[in-house]
Amino acid sequence: MTSEHNIVASLTDIKAVLLQCDHCGARKSIPREKIPQNSGFLDKCEICGTDWWPEGSYKNPTEFPNHIVSFLETMRDIRTIENMVRFTVLLEFDEPTP
């Protein structure tokens, strides 16, 4: 018999958001409750200074980062949001392989 194991987590289970620089690999951990209101923290890596939004990397430079900021703001505010609706958003992940 084969069994499959998945991990299911609620958005409220997320403790922090990690941003990892593709250039140097440095990670910045931002606790969900401390996600800033503006997107300035997404401009560049605080360690190596690499511009995270190189010219031409997206079609509309004023729109694309706002989607990421909206996602991060939702992560910050999710407890309030989930108290306003009658459902819970769950994420399902494959179990990590050893």
Keywords, please?
98 residues; alpha+beta; two-stranded antiparallel ribbon; 21% helix; globular
Detailed description of the structure:
The structure is a single chain. By secondary structure, this protein is an alpha+beta fold. It has one domain (6-88). It has one helix at 64-84, and strands spanning 6-10, 16-20, 27-31, 90-94. A hairpin with a 6-residue loop joins strand 2 and strand 3. The two termini are 20 Å apart. The mean pLDDT is 81.
Counting helices, strands and paired strands, the structural category is alpha+beta
Rg over C-alpha atoms, rounded to the nearest angstrom: 17 Å
Low-confidence runs of at least 5 consecutive residues:
none
Tell me the span between the first and last alpha carbons. 20 Å
Number of strands: 4
Number of domains: 1
- Helical content stands at 10-25%
Main β sheet profile: 2 strands, antiparallel
Main sheet: which strands, in order across? 1-4
Count every helix, treating DSSP H or I runs of 4 or more residues as helices. 1
Query: Which term fits the overall shape?
Result: globular
Mean pLDDT: 81
Share of β-strand residues? 15-25%
Order of helices and strands: EEEHE
